[in-house]
Amino acid sequence: MINNNPWWPSPYGPDDQIGMLNEITPAKVVAAARLARQGQVYDLAHILDEQVPAFPGRTFRQSLVTGAHLLNRRRPDAGPAGWGENNVNWIIELVSSTSQMGTHLDGLNHLQIGDRFYNGHTLIELAEEWGTNRLGIETVPQIITRGLLLNIAGLHGVERLSPGYVISVADVTAALDRQEIQVERGDVVLFHTGWGDLWMQDNAAYLSGEPGPGMAVAMWLVEQGVALTGCDTWSYGPVPPEDPAQPFVVPQTLNVRHGMFIVENLHTTELARAGVSEFMFVLTHAKVRGATGAWVSPIAIA
Asked: Which of 120, 238, 243, 297 is buried most deeply by CB count within 10 Å?
């Protein structure tokens, strides 16, 4: 049953734009820094190029521009192989893509229920030719907090969960007990399903479906005050969905109703293999005005 009750104004205020990231306090950042004990850094991002698996309609194109190597030699003060006596040259690249590719953070302007966003904003209020005038990725603070990785594949003794597998609250509590950790307000909670091992190995299989947290887990995360969540899958939540009539309802509910940020296409394999459950989580991003997401390379520091 679709819940049509209004979800605005946000508990964080009618003008709020960062949702559950409000749960990350200065004290939380200080406590997270203390988790960096060995100085071991785990990169949680995949490499982004034209060959990565992508949702239909999304593409990444990068072209190299080498024109300066020709034009610099025609300057009045050119050297024999470039500009000036020092023969300086450069190359640049041009990228045409959506931010909704590769390992990326979804903004609160990405998903809607009908035409309403987080905090009840409507598309007609927010849409501009260049992006949205509120909830854009430039409003999202850089994120440092305590991170947890729940190894659900390991819990079930498999390398990879099956597509459509619904991660339950029982799975979550069992993983927490097995890994001897507890969720706290302001945490980042990431899920390892093993699905990410298909990335660039079998892209068709990777995009054919995915395991993921079900709606009960989504509501549990909200109740715990989790600031951000993510998974080693191309979306968030099981595909096929729990209810065939409600596609992508898990990320939609978290993003729109509760202002919880989601990271997709995470690379969690190395962290899971190392048995790291608790870490300092760091995510920074380019502040592109009005964008619906950001390419990110989050790290876990243990």
From this structure: 238
Q: With CA atoms as reference, report the closest residue to 250 among 231, 272, 265.
A: 231
Separation of alpha carbons 153 and 125, rounded Å = 43
What number is the average pLDDT over the span 143-166?
98
Which domains does the chain carry?
Answer: 19-47+100-301 (3.50.30.50), 60-96 (no CATH)
| DSSP-derived 3-state class of residue 69 | helix
Question: Is it the case that residue 40 has pLDDT exceeding 90?
Answer: yes
Predicted local distance difference test score (pLDDT) of residue 219? 98
| Burial of 219: CB neighbours in 10 Å, binned 0-12, 13-18, 19+ | middle
What long-range pairs does 55-59 form, CB within 8 A, spacing at least 24?
55/100, 55/207, 55/234, 55/235, 58/97, 58/98, 58/100, 58/101, 59/96, 59/97, 59/98, 59/101
Residue 210 forms beta bridges with which residues? 239
- Over range 69-89, report the average pLDDT: 97
Q: Give the number of other CB atoms < 10 A from CB of residue 138.
A: 16
Q: Could you tell me where the DSSP H helices lie in 37-131? A: 68-71, 123-126
| Cα separation, 212 vs 238, whole angstroms | 4
Distance from C-alpha of 164 to C-alpha of 294, rounded to nearest angstrom: 26
Task: Identify the DSSP state of 60.
Answer: E
pLDDT at residue 4 is higher than 80: no
> Distance (Å, rounded) from C-alpha 270 to C-alpha 281?
15
Handedness of CA 110, 112, 115, 119 (dihedral sign): negative
How far is residue 56 from each of residues 106, 111, 197, 204, 277, measured CA to CA in Å? 17, 16, 20, 12, 33
Q: In the predicted model, what is the mean pLDDT of the chain?
A: 97
The residue type at 278 = E
Residue 2 has pLDDT above 60, yes or no: no
Residue 30 near residue 193, CB atoms below 8 Å: no
**Which among 229, 259, 251 is positioned nearest to 16, based on CA atoms?**
259
